[in-house]
Amino acid sequence: xxxxxxxxxxxxxxxxxxxxxxxxxxxxxxxxxxxxxxxxxxxxxxxxxxxxxxxxxxxxxxxxxxxxxxxxxxxxxxxxxxxxxxxxxxxxxxxxxxxxxxxxxxxxxxxxxxxxxxxxxxxxxxxxxxxxxxxxxxxxxxxxxxxxxxxxxxxxxxxxxxxxxxxxxxxxxxxxxxxxxxxxxxxxxxxxxxxxxxxxxxxxxxxxxxxxxxxxxxxxxxxxxxxxxxxxxxxxxxxxxxxxxxxxxxxxxxxxxxxxxxxxxxxxxxxxxxxxxxxxxxxxxxxxxxxxxxxxxxxxxxxxxxxxxxxxxxxxxxxxxxxxxxxxxxxxxxxxxxxxxxxxxxxxxxxxxxxxxxxxxxxxxxxxxxxxxxxxxxxxxxxxxxxxxxxxxxxxxxxxxxxxxxxxxxxxxxxxxxxxxxxxxxxxxxxxxxxxxxxxxxxxxxxxxxxxxxxxxxxxxxxxxxxxxxxxxxxxxxxxxxxxxxxxxxxxxxxxxxxxxxxxxxxxxxxxxxxxxxxxxxxxxxxxxxxxxxxxxxxxxxxxxxxxxxxxxxxxxxxxxxxxxxxxxxxxxxxxxxxxxxxxxxxxxxxxxxxxxxxxxxxxxxxxxxxxxxxxxxxxxxxxxxxxxxxxxxxxxxxxxxxxxxxxxxxxxxxxxxxxxxxxxxxxxxxxxxxxxxxxxxxxxxxxxxxxxxxxxxxxxxxxxxxxxxxxxxxxxxxxxxxxxxxxxxxxxxxxxxxxxxxxxxxxxxxxxxxxxxxxxxxxxxxxxxxxxxxxxxxxxxxxxxxxxxxxxxxxxxxxxxxxxxxxxxxxxxxxxxxxxxxxxxxxxxxxxxxxxxxxxxxxxxxxxxxxxxxxxxxxxxxxxxxxxxxxxxxxxxxxxxxxxxxxxxxxxxxxxxxxxxxxxxxxxxxxxxxxxxxxxxxxxxxxxxxxxxxxxxxxxxxxxxxxxxxxxxxxxxxxxxxxxxxxxxxxxxxxxxxxxxxxxxxxxxxxxxxxxxxxxxxxx
Length: 1005
Ligand SMILES: Cc1cc2nc3c(=O)[nH]c(=O)nc-3n(C[C@H](O)[C@H](O)[C@H](O)COP(=O)(O)OP(=O)(O)OC[C@H]3O[C@@H](n4cnc5c(N)ncnc54)[C@H](O)[C@@H]3O)c2cc1C
Hints:
Blueprint: H1 3-9, H2 24-38, H3 49-62, H4 64-76, H5 83-94, H6 103-111, H7 119-137, H8 143-155, E1 159-164, H9 172-194, H10 200-203, E2 204-205, E3 208-209, E4 214-217, H11 231-252, E5 255-258, H12 266-275, E6 280-284, H13 290-303, E7 308-313, H14 318-328, H15 338-354, E8 358-363, H16 367-379, E9 388-392, H17 397-405, E10 410-416, H18 419-434, H19 439-445, H20 450-453, H21 494-509, E11 514-515, E12 517-519, E13 522-524, E14 529-534, E15 537-546, H22 550-569, H23 572-588, H24 590-600, H25 605-629, E16 633-635, E17 641-649, E18 653-656, H26 664-675, E19 680-683, H27 689-701, E20 709-711, H28 716-725, E21 731-735, H29 738-750, E22 759-763, E23 768-772, H30 778-790, E24 800-806, H31 807-822, H32 842-858, E25 860-864, E26 882-885, H33 892-895, E27 902-908, H34 911-919, E28 923-924, E29 926-930, H35 934-943, E30 948-951, E31 968-969, E32 972-973, E33 987-995
Parallel strand pairs: 1-4, 1-10, 4-5, 6-7, 7-8, 8-9, 9-10, 11-15, 18-19, 18-21, 19-20, 21-22, 23-24, 23-29, 24-27, 26-27, 29-30
Antiparallel strand pairs: 2-3, 12-13, 14-15, 16-17, 17-33, 22-32, 25-26, 28-31
Helix pairs in contact: 2-16, 2-17, 3-4, 3-7, 4-5, 4-18, 5-6, 5-7, 6-7, 9-11, 11-12, 15-16, 21-24, 22-28, 23-25, 24-25, 25-26, 30-31
The chain binds flavin-adenine dinucleotide (FAD).
């Protein structure tokens, strides 16, 4: 039966509210009813695996909490090595308070109780069931094992597109393996497919023969370093790995489609496609700009007289995109109202069908959406075989029956591969099946009435809308909006990449200029000048800074002392306003400031952008904090007495900042001191004075009165002691090495200020560890270790320098970490492909290399990166990543802060030992845990005693307000930066009590 016959041959009675038959809407509804009439709900036998799976989905849909635990259990399951481990996780996931496990599951938990002789049985049953579940969606491990299913599909007049399971590859070795799997698949299937009898419905399209072998491929798996920030490099690398696959596909007559993944890879995928337009591409209807994207694609195809294969989908990453955009503060790329996606799908269907340059495939399980495809095609007189319908293997089988009955070409998307990489796929399918807005859920589970299911989507009033680009207005101290972090640059957007390139060129044009001191509101140049250099190219001078000697240091302290009374008496809201104006100025030149960091501090684009963003955050956050703390608080409630609690500034502050977050930490300490009412003397770090000078310039431009901000690049050796011990310095805020920090604390104690004991806030190093549990997601463990240990060459006090791995995961983790590290590009930070840049100075390089030598005598060196052929470029201060394994806990490289790209991997028998090792240093700054055991997570939260503990993520990149940052033990004294207690350290609390009762009369409250 053809679609035309199917629809017109059996007119059904028109229910009330149904659209007239002679309109397109009427045709769509009629087609949808027809599809429904051809579907039969499957009957499942009591004991079938499918019955059990369906029940599991039902439980998930009835209880959100249970759903989370079910999905997490499915996710961790493949890494559980023994039945006992399965039983333990079963108990931990479903035995938790607040999780209402249904009866069969409760029975399983009971059986899995510790010490129960039936515990292994429970584990075995679960394993069997989950394997069966995976098999519902996954057709085999490889070409050979997939063949029986593919033959069955063909017998059922259904085509296929195979996809090799695997999420992002963490190393180039894994990307090679992924590419190899495709080549094998093509080889394995070519012969098999050639032996098949012709089947016109799947083999023949309006434009000619259709390849029997059809593959789908994710470009992220082809290049481990894929990142839109390095757009051209990523396209090149993917294209290179794709070339032999594409050649083989052409040679064997197979078709290949590039799947579309997260939004950040959308443009990259399109760019790869433009190099290989014999492949097919995917369009996601949930993207707000999908229509414009399709228009560009059609223009491009028509301009080149090409015909392109295009699969229209709604999009599989909705939850991810919405969470990511909210976390990053980015405009949402996807619709948030489900009918908008459905309506966009229908609009795109029409456009695709109208343009002969497109060979369309429509992928959906939504009967209304499918009916829209069919009816629109008919209204445009597009032949039934000029498009195809695609659905996922294991989903919506009754609808497939109907599509086939209507005589349309149907293709199933079917993954092949191992269970572990398959789990992410499985969880996505589960989410899709159980999402509140899912059509399949409404149809088959909730049994919604057909009349309702066929109705047209009702889009929101803004549809079709473009993403809103948030414009951040300057903060008004009288009515500040709630604090929000400055969004990081989204380098998947072309304009951000272009802005950065332009800023880099502009900043480079201005390099080498002299940079003054600021004392008492005046710019001062001195005879003593020091040049600062680009660490990636030491011959390049970034700027020439006037250095202050003892005379300038004394002048700066004097200026701060004189300005103190007036500044201290300035109302808190006015002081906050200074910070808000500075934040606005910084936002205005964010890109250039970041580019300067690339050149002076060797920060890669993301790291530099994040540092400037954090500086802006400190200004915005501390400004608001001062508004919160600035007033007088009334205390107590006793009549006849008035108690006021409030804060006063401490007095002139010395700020001594490090070079590793050259703007953020400098701005954080300076702005906290300022807004609390203290004048400041700012000493920037030796290697980054030009960046520091930008803060001084911006604060003055924002209206800092003379003497309130004194900027004093100087030699710590020459004037450091003078400043620290000066009686007019009341407060010292320091971030840097433990050695200097302790010296400052000791000197401050011995040299009180004129008006009392000096207050010192000191942030000093860390020796931070990540614990990797036996059930850890090793993709996460490896990638997050790489970011935490090697980004910015490990030169962060929060960086991971130890990884404590549980026995069962040790070998695999180490092997993958080594391969992933080998894949990192070490090079100049301005090259967007670079992941690891140079270290800050020649001296730093030397010191790190000494640690590496030390490590060789203490442990086994599993990986030592080295220079590329031809040596390091431009004599930069490079140290490539190094990984030591089997490191004894007391080794020097496991105890001392190295501040370089060197990581020590330590083996632990169990979690007791892992915690003992992790806690076994004199520092307590950051730490991490990668684990999927709820009980272990709960334990480590309690027992891993560090200032900032991160679970299942990297341990660097704390955000102001969201992750207040700072440690204890020898990691520092003082409260967390970017947190609610930070400003209190810059002020002294006072209480004033007034007796308001006179002659027995007390005024009312
Ligand atoms: C053969 C095939 C290939 C596929 N290839 C890809 C691919 O390459 N890339 C990819 O991303 N996806 C792909 N998908 C998945 C697809 O994008 C959909 O997730 C899936 O098909 C569900 O859509 P539906 O029309 O079947 O179901 P429906 O239930 O009608 O729609 C569900 C979809 O609506 C959208 N949605 C859900 N909630 C909201 C909301 N609140 N606001 C706005 N939109 C919402 C989401 O996209 C969700 O998946 C493919 C699907 C198939 C069948």
